[in-house]
Amino acid sequence: RLIVNSNLPSDIQVLDIKRTTRSFCSRTARDKVRYQYMVPSFLLMPPDEVKRAFVDVKVEEFDRNDPEKNLNDVVKLEMLQNTRGFLADYRVSNEQVENLRKSLAIFEGTKSFHNYTRKLSSSDASTSRFIMKFASLDPVIMPGLTNEDGSKSPDSQWVPVQITGQSFLLNQIRKMVSAAVDLARGAVTHEQIEQSFSRQNLMKVDVAPAQGLFLDRSSFEMYNEHKVKNAAKNGGESVDRDTLDWFEAEGKELSPAVKRTEKLKNNTIIPHIVKEETEEGNFVKYLYTHDVLFNDTYQIRELEIRSKKKPDGVKEEPT
């Protein structure tokens, strides 16, 4: 592992090497997966404060459904520059963090997520997913970047959010984050979120930026139990294989692989997300378009007739 890593860029690492069965597939053998999403604290700002923050920003009117128009060509970062410093200085209160935790918990359990993906009808059984846990961690302060002239960007506060489930639909996590954050800051009601799970309702839910999302853990408990620990008892070969200990176990010390994963996450992945936001301002653009430019989110639409043909494969949330 160390030899391989010595030949890789610093932001790409092999975290563990294990011998598995010949038929092992990392995607189908895992029994649960956890993603993490980094939420900048200013996304939890109440809607009226957001509108005041962007009051001087003016953009030309355009049809968001016009294929000739690119949103990034209309909403440019330099237009939002005066607001960025104010947003970066925003800090959430304990009450806001608690509201977010309560909002995230609403999504736990088995629900229909047809409004949280694309191209799947409300009657499609594959839109039903089981969310084991959806919770936020304590806010963290990330240091600002040092510029070429020696000046320093302001520090920023972020709220890590973790979601654990068996599998996820395309865009599901990013839409859930968008809706949960809106619920926590009072931009949508609890009733509207509950309505979004009803197969009788079609509702537009915005997609949070992709840059905040990454794969955090994959769990192989069933594989460890049946293919490693009890392989001979279950009719398999009695050979020495290592368990895939890549998820925290309650009451046990973190495995070396998990410790290496945490180090890579905290030292490389999260700082890259912060750096990208400083350079591109994708979350600032999202907040402006979501709160100020458009106002058609969470409206219930008349149930459309969609094709009932089941897709060849259900896409999982990209990392």
What's a quick, concise take on this entry?
With 319 residues, the chain is of the alpha+beta class.
Could you name the key traits of this structure?
32% helix; 319 residues; two-stranded antiparallel sheet; alpha+beta; six-stranded antiparallel beta sheet
Question: What topology does this entry show?
Answer:
Blueprint: H1 2-5, E1 32-40, H2 47-53, H3 71-74, H4 81-88, H5 94-105, E2 109-112, E3 128-136, E4 140-142, E5 156-165, H6 172-184, H7 190-196, E6 202-203, E7 213-219, H8 221-229, H9 256-280, H10 282-293, E8 300-301
Antiparallel strand pairs: 1-5, 1-7, 2-3, 3-5, 4-5, 6-8
How would you describe the overall organization of this protein?
With 319 residues, the chain is of the alpha+beta class. It contains ten helices and eight strands. The chain has helices at 2-5, 47-53, 71-74, 81-88, 94-105, 172-184, 190-196, 221-229, 256-280, 282-293, and strands at 32-40, 109-112, 128-136, 140-142, 156-165, 202-203, 213-219, 300-301. Strands 1, 2, 3, 4, 5 and 7 form a six-stranded antiparallel sheet that branches. The longest helix has 25 residues, at 256-280. The relative contact order is 0.20.
